[in-house]
Amino acid sequence: MTNTDTDKLIKELEEITGKTYEPIDVDNIPCEEISDQAVLDKQPLVSVNMITYNHEPYIAQAIEGVVNQKTDYPFELIIGEDCSTDRTREIVLEYQKKYPDIIRVLYSENNLGARRNGLRTEKACRGKYIAYCEGDDYWIRDDKLQIQVSYLEEHPDVGMVHSRAIVNYLTEDIKKVSSKPISLEHENRKTRMGIYLTANNFIITCTVVFRANYLKLFHTDSIILCNLLHIGDVQRWVKVISETPIHFFDEILGVYNKLPISATKPSCKHKYLEAIKMERCLYLFYLQGCNLFPRMEAGVSTKFFRRQLRMAIKCRIMKDAKEAYYELKRLKALSYKDFILFFLFCCSFKSMIFDTLLYKVIR
User: Fold this and answer.
1) In principle, which of 68, 153, 196, 244 could form an S-S bond with 159, CB 3.0–4.6 Å?
2) Which of 30-39, 192-201, 340-349 holds the top average pLDDT?
3) Is 164 in contact with 251 (CB distance < 8 Å)?
4) pLDDT of residue 319
5) Would 116 be classed as within a structural domain?
6) 69-90 mean pLDDT
7) Residues sharing a CB contact under 8 Å with residue 187, sequence separation 6 or more, in sequence order
8) CB-based contacts of 33, cutoff 8 Å, min separation 6
9) For residue 262, what pLDDT is reported?
10) Within a 13 Å sphere around the CA of 137, how many CA atoms are in the beta-carbon half?
11) Distance between CA 259 and CA 301 in Å, rounded?
12) Within 13 Å of residue 278, how many CA atoms lie on the same side as its CB?
């Protein structure tokens, strides 16, 4: 990708957010550490990255899933605690005292946000391999690290592994097993990128383990370091997939809790609408970078404009709803339901009857 492409993306993100681009300086993110250097292993093979903020109901289970791993090598758990307003920090520090040979706690005096907290926690990792488990997710097998790292040790050509997980929709009390993705282990770079960018985001963060040398790519990438984006996983996996094949374990190794409030689903619907628009720009940017834009742009744009249409209607923002509707029409992807939703939305400004019908259709 050229500097011109990157500048164009940044300008689009600035227009969406109304903010100015400032790259995050990883080396100057505030960071204090609580750990017992006397008992920590000096050369852990694996560093487990766990960021947390207001995860009081979930953090103990997340930590237990990591410290109970059975491995024939040392590992460390680095917890980035981001000034929680509940008991999260208290619980984390209790576990650090209980497992001083495994746990390191990073903190600061002020809340940093998920992006900066994640970057400082990554920077502190010392292992040859990096695993993730955010503070509201958890691992369900005590051999997760052993089987994944063993595979990477035996297959030096593979840079990352991931697996299935149980997706737990907490607000709806629904649990589903994540779908099996198309293999990216034996495909060339361009094919890998195309599959990942045009499928739904099928890499579940709490199941990932990758080689630590890719962190250098993360921490020098202007898009990963962009302060305007709510999300960070997509950029990371694109970076790894562009460099190496990845292996998928067709086994359930973790649980991904989908909370009502998260980085990709903010509590404010307007922020979620903003996130949808930013994500569309990001995906198209990466397609452009691997020369897949003309062939795959329509499918990716359709997916995001359909999401934009629905969220704009929920937010009652006519401008964004109109944009999405006419873009779907231009792409020849306007469905019957899209048409009905937009029709009812337009009519709802004139009559409460249409507003009631719209609510029933869109919920």
Assistant:
1) 244
2) 30-39
3) yes
4) 94
5) yes
6) 97
7) 195, 245
8) 104, 105, 106, 107, 124
9) 54
10) 23
11) 26
12) 28
The confidence band for 243, taking pLDDT boundaries of 50, 70 and 90, is very high
Q: How far apart are CA 81 and CA 137, in angstroms?
A: 15
Examine the domain organization and report whether 50 and 127 are in the same domain: yes
Q: 136 with 110, same domain? A: yes
What tokens does 217 get?
């790519």
Give the per-residue pLDDT at 202.
81
Q: How far apart are CA 25 and CA 353, in angstroms?
A: 52
**Both tokens of residue 271?**
């922020």
Residue 309 lies in a domain: yes
Q: Are 138 and 66 within one domain?
A: yes
Contact 358, 316 (CB under 8 A): no
The span from the CA of 267 to the CA of 275, in Å, is: 12
Residue 202 and residue 56 in one domain: yes
* pTM score, whole prediction: 0.89
Last residue of one domain, picked from the residues 201, 236, 258: 258
- Residue 41 counted as domain residue: yes
3-state SS, residue 360: helix
153 and 278 in a single domain? The answer is: no
Is residue 326 pLDDT above 90, yes or no?
yes
Task: Encode burial over 87-98: b for 16+ CB neighbours within 10 A, e otherwise.
Answer: ebbebbbebbee
Q: How many domains does the chain have?
A: 2
Lookup: tokens for 66: 């990591």
Give the position of tokens 């001083």: 100
Segments in the chain forming alpha helices (H): 3-17, 59-67, 88-98, 114-123, 144-154, 189-198, 215-218, 233-241, 269-289, 293-315, 318-330, 336-348, 352-362
User: Beta-carbon neighbour count of residue 346 at 10 Å?
Assistant: 16
